[in-house]
Amino acid sequence: MALHKQVCGERAEEVVSIPSSGLWSEAAQGLPRNRLGDVPLSADEAYQLVSDQLMLDGNARLNLATFVTTWMDPQARQLMADTFDKNMIDKDEYPQTAELERRCVNIIAHLWNAPDAGDATGCSTTGSSEAAMLGGMALKWRWRARRRAAGKPADKPNLVMGINVQVCWDKFCRYWEVEPRLVPMAPGRYHLTADQIAEYCDENTIGVVAILGSTFDGSYEPVQEICAALDDVQAQTGLDIPVHVDGASGGFIAPFLDPDLVWDFRLDRVQSINASGHKFGLVYPGVGWVAWRDAEALPEELVFKVNYLGGEMPTFALNFSRPGAQVCAQYYMFVRLGFEGYRCIQQSCRDMATYLSGRIAAMGPFELITDGGELPVFAFKLKDGVGDYTAFDVSLGIRKWGWLVPAYTFPKDCEDVVALRIVVRNGFSRDMADLLLADLERATQYLTKLTAPLPERDAASFAH
Predict the structure, then answer these.
(1) What is the pTM of this model?
(2) In this predicted model, what pLDDT tens digit does every residue of 386-443 receive, in sequence order?
(3) Is residue 26 located within the same domain as residue 147?
(4) Of 4, 66, 391, 435, whose CB is crowded by the most CB atoms within 10 A?
(5) Residues 241 and 170 both lie in one domain
(6) Looking at the structure, do residues 91 and 51 belong to the same domain, yes or no?
């Protein structure tokens, strides 16, 4: 309060005395929207007024559209509050926060079977979108260096990936002037497969992106088969094309639930991997991670040595200042859960996803696209000829009970597929699953009656 009085002078006494009702004060009658208010408010009143605005948001726990973590231990929340003021970039001033980041990178590299996980090459980011872009930059720089060393032009780079990639890869290609070579979907094939690779690759291909968990349906792309196809390309053409694995979600699922699935640095062709700590890494947003196979896979010219706030430090990022809270929270989760804790949580999520998908498939109106047996994510659609309503109607119908389940069309060549998708995250209980199933069944029954031919309608049956 002393600082408040120093800034506001005698006026501060008036500010402190403002009631904290948030209901009847002058400010409550007109919150500032496009310009600052004339006078300050008490902290309690400002909190109440903003909190009231946020009541209009959906309930994050009922948001089955998002992959992002919506629940953490109270102790983790406290740790994040304690460390929001630490600037992650100030490694000389906050050396222990930097040490926790280093430990996290090594732990993650070990999970991904990096050759030297004790001294791994990687970093934290604001999310896996930034991490993906850093991985893409390394691919482009290494390709360009090879082309220049061979005396060849380096002005037409391309990147091969399935059309199901997350939008961050479209952004990468546009921002860094790389041609996106998007492999299309086909009926029944909704992600990149090995047999499609060869025709899209040439001497200007900086790499192939394989996704461990498509956002459209939760399915894994066959990374090992894709790498084997690229081995054949090299044998036939001499082109040595690296792979980046976008493990935004699967990077924190497969190590615990699918240990025999070979998708990571066990494959020599995989040069870099990104993942979201704030998805199945179980941390509140936003934190991502990227690791390279070894130091050679990250071009030295991309790493800046910055003399800042007392010491020289290396940095490779698209931004600069950011809080250390999420990195501290990630380390907390690693300490708190260990391998077995993560395995149990991820298995519980997968079990809940397959339980839900099985029950939904048995309802009648729906058929599954995926069943949640890879990522704890599954997509389903209405069967042909079921009622005169759409997946969008179903999505809207269950929203009245607070459930946020997205409906969306698939990309080019599969636009006729209109899917609903459910993401099962830590904290989604069996009781919540059963409530969702009951509400989904009520919504579809209502829509069936509502869209029935007029003679079959009974106004009494519309009571809902």
Answers:
(1) 0.89
(2) 878 999 999 999 999 999 999 999 998 899 999 999 999 999 999 999 999 999 999 9
(3) no
(4) 391
(5) yes
(6) no
